[in-house]
Write a structure and sequence with these properties.
The complex is a heterodimer. Chain A is of the alpha/beta class. Helix content of chain A is 20%, strand content 29%. Chain A is globular. In chain B, a hairpin with a 2-residue loop joins strand 2 and strand 3. Chain B is globular. Classes of the chains: A alpha/beta, B alpha/beta.
């Protein structure tokens, strides 16, 4: 019997410090046994459990895209015991990953549609996965217009800054990068303002062919939702990814439920229409 | 199904014979109560307990168990790579389990063994076990199994059910596993004519002795949000001290924590029973807690037992009516009372919605 708790051994291939506060690092993993890559076939929006041997596990969204082969990538905020131990690890170290876990953004539904990605802070990881996947030459034709509203406190707190700049230069994706404040950054050439305000100013109006994927801190979500309502997005066209404390990641340990649904197995992706019928325990 | 007749000495001799092919677990006396555990060599089977204080879930699903092991010694070839912990899944006979506790495993099964994932620890532990139940002829005043989907002679989850009768037992052999166990125990004497009728009469008498009920009939027709937002939760939770005794006693509570422990260069990944009564259970790394107070935690427990479970797995409640939480709650919170509040709740604006 396959043991869903047994991590796949991986080696840290590259560590990138993402933010100026050095609290967010991206870890690129390669498989100790290359054949294990076939066991980790994922879709954009799923997550994995990162396993630091002797310390424990943490559930983290997959930041790499399924179109990027030979490695898998996670961006981790330093918060507790496991993430702190992970931040102390270096290239070459061996650890484990479990997954892929959870559902994904509804790519089958999104084909042939306009996709508006709205992200804030460090909740941009599975959104990066989604953007890279959609921009892949094999996939770009499957989607109509792509808009991205992404904000952070300051320019130095944005994730994946080189990629953001590269996407800004393309004509097949509409980037709306913003920061809460750009003081002391006279070179800043993008937006200044909170994500909800930029969304209101730049995002396309809602219609049957336009879906929004929203991922960010609770305060951003709270103020973005009325904006999307105003823009005419129906609640089954607003897609969100949730987080709750997790252990098993496979719907067994019992702590991440919202009503009858487990965030780990039935989510983490839910439409706002689904969430409207669920208790607000997230 | 086959009916056998056992004398007390058949039972005693059978238990000794079973030890050759099975690990034997049974209720063991401990101070003023009983607890399930391996029957020590030479110890006789004691079936005098009305029930064990803790449920029999620990037989299949221990309160603490090793899942994985890992070496942190860089000199070892597979250092930092997790391996499965060594386990003993040789055949096990669970003797004297009450029908409520055996049925609990069937309620828990969809959590640990479903089409998406199989928990290898629970599944192997369950599958290597043969359950020999003991029918309840004298139920406790806190038993309400008959309104929770079971009964004092219920056979769900059992391979053999023993019912005391005259100078011995009538044994119902219910499954192939039960047949194999009966053969290993040397139990073969067919029950005398009329045993089936006697069994039916005993069952009817025992059923009638259970007068306590849990009311849940109307809960499936209500929405999760209407019950979640009902006004009675603060009052229902008022006395709760979030001690978690209910969840540890309960045969169906399955929640667990996963923790790594390391000593020098050896690490293990453990799983331990956890409880929705504890604030840490849902605390986010950010400090945010989606169930921040005891009302939210008490509501979670009863909503899970009486509403979420049935909605998710297609009916029924996640309770066998064993009554342990009723008996042992230090502040007298009673699932039957909470159930009747939920069952009887009609939101004032139900018509307007």
């Amino acid at each position: 019997m396959e043991n869903p708790y047994l991590p796949i051994p991986v080696r840290i291939d590259k560590v990138t410090i993402e933010t100026e506060d050095r609290n967010l690092k991206t870890f690129r993993f390669v498989y100790v046994n290359p054949a294990d890559e076939n066991r980790f076939q994922y879709k954009a929006g799923q997550f994995g459990e990162l396993s630091v041997s002797g310390k424990g596990e943490i559930p983290i969204g997959i930041a790499s895209s399924p179109t990027e082969k030979g490695f898998v990538m996670f961006t981790v905020n330093k918060v507790g015991l496991v993430s702190s131990a992970l931040h102390d690890m270096v290239e070459g170290d061996v650890m484990g990953i479990r997954g892929p876990l959870g559902n994904w953004y509804p790519w089958e539904t999104l084909e042939g549609k306009n996709v508006v990605i709205i992200g804030g802070g460090f909740a941009f990881t599975t959104l990066r996965s989604s953007i890279v996947m959609m921009l892949d030459p094999a996939n770009r034709g499957k989607f109509k217009d792509i808009h991205v509203v992404y904000g952070a406190r300051s320019p130095g707190m944005l994730l994946y800054r080189d990629e953001l700049a590269a996407w800004e230069a393309r004509d097949d994706i509409n980037m709306h990068i913003t920061v809460d404040s750009a003081k002391d950054q006279p070179d800043w050439k993008y937006n200044v303002g909170f994500v909800p305000a930029v969304t209101e100013a730049k995002a396309p109006k809602g219609d049957d062919d336009t879906y929004a994927i929203v991922c960010g801190p609770p305060v951003m979500i709270k103020f973005t939702q009325p904006v999307l309502d105003k823009l005419g997005y129906k609640h089954d066209h607003i897609i969100m990814s949730l987080e709750n404390r997790m252990k098993c990641g496979i719907g067994m340990c019992g702590r991440c439920n919202i009503g009858k649904d487990f965030v780990c197995k039935d989510g983490p992706v839910f439409t706002l229409e689904q969430l409207n019928k669920m208790p607000k325990e997230y | 199904m086959r009916l056998l007749q056992l004398s007390h000495s058949d039972l005693t001799r059978g238990v000794e014979a079973l030890r050759k092919a099975f690990r034997v677990e049974a209720p063991l006396p401990e101070r003023d109560h009983f607890v399930f555990g391996p029957l020590p060599a030479g110890a006789a089977l004691d079936l005098s307990a009305a029930n064990t204080r803790l449920s029999a879930k620990s037989v299949i699903y221990p309160a603490s168990e090793k899942m994985l092991r890992v070496s942190l010694d860089p000199a070892k070839e597979d250092h930092h790579v997790y391996r499965e912990a060594d386990k003993d899944y040789s055949p096990r006979a669970v003797l004297g389990i009450r029908p409520c506790d055996a049925r609990a495993f069937t309620l828990v099964k969809p959590n640990f063994d479903n089409r998406e994932y199989r928990d290898p620890y629970w599944v192997r532990s369950y599958e290597c076990s043969t359950f020999v139940g003991l029918a309840c002829k004298s139920p406790c005043s806190t038993c309400f199994c008959t309104s929770a989907g079971g009964g004092p002679f219920d056979t769900a989850g059992l391979d053999v059910l023993l019912a005391e009768s005259g100078e011995g037992f009538i044994a119902q052999v219910l499954t192939e596993k039960g047949e194999a166990l009966a053969a290993a125990a040397g139990w073969s004497a067919a029950a005398p004519e009329g045993a089936e009728a006697a069994l039916s009469a005993m069952k009817a008498e025992a059923d009638a002795r259970i007068v306590s009920r849990i009311e849940t009939e109307k809960i499936p027709g209500k929405t999760i949000l209407s019950l979640f937002d009902a006004p009675f939760w603060d009052d229902a939770a008022f006395a709760c001290i979030n001690c978690g005794a209910c969840t540890y006693l309960c045969p169906t509570c399955w929640c667990f924590d996963i923790q790594d422990e390391a000593h020098e260069n050896e690490g293990v990944r453990m799983r331990n029973w956890d409880s929705c009564m504890f604030p840490l259970f849902t605390l986010h790394g950010s400090g945010h807690n989606p169930r921040p107070n005891k009302t939210a935690r008490v509501r979670q427990r009863f909503m899970h037992k009486l509403k979420y479970y049935g909605d998710k797995y297609g009916g029924g409640i996640h309770c066998t009516g064993c009554g342990r939480c009723v008996t042992h709650c230090p502040v007298n919170i009673d699932i039957r009372r909470i159930a009747s509040l939920m069952n009887g709740y009609e939101p004032d604006n139900a018509c307007a919605l």
